[in-house]
Design a protein that fits this description.
By secondary structure, the protein is of the alpha/beta class. The protein contains seven helices and eleven strands. The chain has helices at about 70-80, 135-150, 170-180, 190-195, 225-245, 275-280, 280-289, and strands spanning about 5-10, 20-25, 40-45, 50-55, 85-90, 100-105, 105-110, 155, 160, 185, 200-210.
Length: about 290
Amino acid sequence: MADQWTIGIIGGSGLYAIDGLEDQAWRRVESPWGQPSDDILFGRIGDVHLRFLPRHGRGHRIAPSDLNARANIDALKRSGCTDILSISSIGSLREELAPGRFVVIDQFIDRTKGRPSSFFTSGMVAHVSMAEPVCERLSAFAAEAVDKAGGNVAKGGTYLAMEGPQFSTRAESMLYRQWGADVIGMTAMPEAKLAREAELPYALIGMVTDYDCWREETAFVEVSEVIAQMAANGAVARKAVEAFVKALPEVREPSPLDTVLDHALITDPAHRDPALLAKLDAVAGRALG
């Protein structure tokens, strides 16, 4: 039903399960955009339906540059999701955002390259606004949930999305600080852009694992240290997901982001590519209908 919540949870490094999930069932969801990262775990917490997708696949087998973000977002849309809560490990570009802190992101700088970043290619062109790239309503619920779970949360922050899989050079890290970036990661783009195109309100909880290499007095980050911090962060994140779901209003009121494609489609109907339209059936079927 249109007024019910179905939350898609995209679990990043450190979040591979959801506590309190009832009626669990892993289901394969096919997408015309290729293979999603994994099957999707269907379940519910109380009356709220959840769809959990491990971003890197179970066992963390998929590198950031190889993620099929289009297939992931499309599969979540096909699974009935109304909104997406993304959870991701991040590095810190600010002294006050120490390892172990959480950041509910509100802005992005996209420095990825070579990743398909839109569902709307030649044959069906659309331009969605990304001025405010996250859902304010979901982000507020997310920040409150982290707080309830015992996490130290910063409300708002700019996420620099880098290509990876290598970490930054010191010069890059210092440059990103000058740009006003607060944290750095490898996976939120083009994920957030694609969620907007799919008319799925999106919020991102970032889990700080380490300081990026701008701090000259600090040793370079080692993966073993990151993994240890991820485990600690993940325990709080699992509690936060449960708190997030339980705090949602019983009725999901419409969001302006539910209908962004009404003002984004630009290709004349007579010149739209039927093959591309068929692939867009889940993502844009409402607007193209």
